[in-house]
Automatic annotation (TrEMBL):
PROSITE patterns associated with the record: COF_2 (PS01229)
MF GO annotations: magnesium ion binding; phosphatase activity
InterPro entries associated with the record: Cof, HAD-like_sf, HAD-SF_hydro_IIB, HAD_sf
Coiled-coil spans in chain: none
Highest taxon listed in the record's lineage: Bacteria
Protein name: Cof subfamily protein (Haloacid dehalogenase superfamily)/HAD superfamily hydrolase (TIGR01484 family)
Any one GO CC term of the record: cytosol
Length: 267
């Protein structure tokens, strides 16, 4: 199969989040891929404002599937597709988090706003190297004028979150951090998935899933790994995630992307 497009998850796949490192071998492999005429794309849960440090090293993405498929940009950062949270749903999240005294942050595509528990969420963003275009809205009102695509909820009560999600079946969650005193979740539209965003790109380029390579390491990568002509799971992925992939490569700490691409494209 002649693969014509490749999508890469960022955190835990291309990018060592805690160390702010993209290994040189991976960067070299992406350049070789571009030289072969393969489209190189990001597929991540991050919004655009949290891609700054990555784009400094990979400024040539042909497309970026952001916020778990809810916000898709082309190479010139023109909007190709969006699936924002409904305004009523966003307000329900705001009211519930205030009632529960949860930490809350929204991603608005090109900016992120903290509403509650500023310092725990600020520290979370600092530790993940995502402080660009991060603001604090003490009035909890920015969502009334702008589309929110994803909420980040910091809570001590998983059961209360489960109950809230059951009351809002149009939402789903992904666990993104476990700490001693809290859990942190992405909460977004249930019909958002990297698979959905990638499908928009493939349609625009008149390509099929069989012509697509996808690299990922987490549960939000499962559908794209399963659908791709070549789905590649990272070595640190769980056995469950690996079960949906066509092959397993080394970890993000061991040049896993470069090794996988070399095997597939025979650099």
């Amino acid at each position: 199969m002649a693969y014509k497009i490749a999508f890469f998850d960022m955190d835990g796949t291309m990018y060592q989040t805690e160390n702010d490192i993209i290994q040189q071998a991976n960067l070299d492999a992406l350049r070789k891929l571009k030289e072969q005429g393969v489209l190189v794309c990001a597929a991540t849960g991050r919004p655009l404002n949290q891609m700054h440090l990555i784009l400094e090293r990979i400024p040539y993405f042909d497309y970026m599937v952001l916020i778990n498929g809810g916000y898709v940009l082309d190479a010139q950062q023109n909007l190709l597709f969006e699936n924002p949270l409904a305004r009523e749903t966003t307000q329900d999240i705001v009211d519930w988090c205030e009632e529960q005294q949860n930490g809350l942050m929204f991603h608005f595509g090109d900016a992120s706003y903290i509403y509650d528990s500023f310092y725990p969420l600020y520290d979370f963003c600092r530790d993940h190297h995502v402080l660009d275009y991060l603001f604090y809205d003490e009035n909890r009102s920015y969502h009334k004028r702008h589309n929110a695509y994803n909420s980040v909820i910091m809570t001590k009560n998983q059961r209360a979150l489960d109950t809230f999600l059951k009351q809002h079946p149009m939402l789903r969650s992904d666990l993104i951090e476990v700490a001693e005193d809290h859990f942190c979740y992405d909460v977004f539209n249930a019909n958002n998935d990297k698979f959905v965003g990638i499908s928009q790109v493939l349609r625009k380029e008149n390509l099929t899933w069989e012509e697509c390579v996808c690299f990922g390491d987490s549960t939000n990568d499962i559908k794209m790994l399963e659908m791709a002509g070549m789905g590649v799971a990272m070595g640190t992925a769980s056995d469950y995630v690996k079960s949906f992939a066509d092959m397993v490569t080394a970890s993000v700490y061991e040049e896993g992307v470069a090794k996988g691409l070399t095997k597939i494209f025979q650099f």
